[in-house]
């Protein structure tokens, strides 16, 4: 029983470290997002549309964990800026599907490149062996997150 408790405590400590590191890294590289000109919530919604779209307002609201009226306002702004399009679903004309425009995809791709460059700069200061460890850990984390 003691071994299980120790293991559980170690897992909790590891999870806590990972949580703290993830938040700090994301805060640090999020500065690159300012160049997009979009707020964090609108950038997040656009990201979901680019990578999972086309999707309904309800699906997007669920993915972003906000209410449909909130996501509708965001989509209206993104549509006005030329980053998304709304169209009726071919299955049900009452349902609006949101998809990304080429401009929306380009904006997101440029933002991703800037964030990856920021992260690369952080990793560059590590010795090669630690970079390899980080890569292996990232591959594992990606596997368990999907």
Write the layout of secondary structure elements.
Layout: H1 2-30, H2 40-52, E1 55-56, H3 57-64, H4 68-80, E2 84-88, E3 96-100, H5 102-124, H6 128-145
Antiparallel strand pairs: 1-3, 2-3
What is the tally of helical segments?
A: 6
Give the overall shape, derived from the CA principal axes: globular
Number of domains: 2
Instruction: Indicate the percent of residues in helices.
Output: over 70%
Strand content: 5-15%
Number of strands: 3
The value of Rg in angstroms is 19 Å
Instruction: Report the mean per-residue pLDDT as an integer.
Output: 91
Could you state the order of secondary-structure elements as H and E? HHEHHEEHH
Instruction: Summarize the main sheet.
Output: 3 strands, antiparallel
Please state the structural category.
mainly alpha
What are the low-pLDDT stretches, counting only 5+ consecutive residues below 50? none
Distance between the termini: 32 Å
Strand order of the biggest β-sheet: 1-3-2
């Amino acid at each position: 029983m003691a071994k299980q408790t120790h293991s559980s405590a170690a897992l909790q400590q590891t999870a806590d470290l990972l949580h703290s590191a993830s938040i700090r890294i994301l805060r640090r590289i999020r500065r690159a997002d300012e160049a997009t000109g979009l707020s964090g919530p609108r950038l997040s919604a656009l990201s979901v549309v680019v990578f999972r779209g086309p999707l309904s307002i309800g699906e997007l609201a669920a993915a972003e964990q906000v209410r449909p009226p909130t996501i509708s306002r965001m989509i209206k702004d993104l549509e006005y800026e030329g980053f998304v399009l709304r169209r009726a679903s071919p299955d049900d004309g009452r349902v609006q599907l949101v998809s990304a425009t080429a401009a929306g995809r380009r904006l997101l791709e440029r933002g991703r490149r800037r964030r990856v460059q920021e992260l690369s700069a952080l990793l560059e200061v590590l010795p090669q062996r630690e970079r390899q460890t980080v890569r292996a850990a990232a591959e594992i984390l990606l596997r368990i997150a999907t």
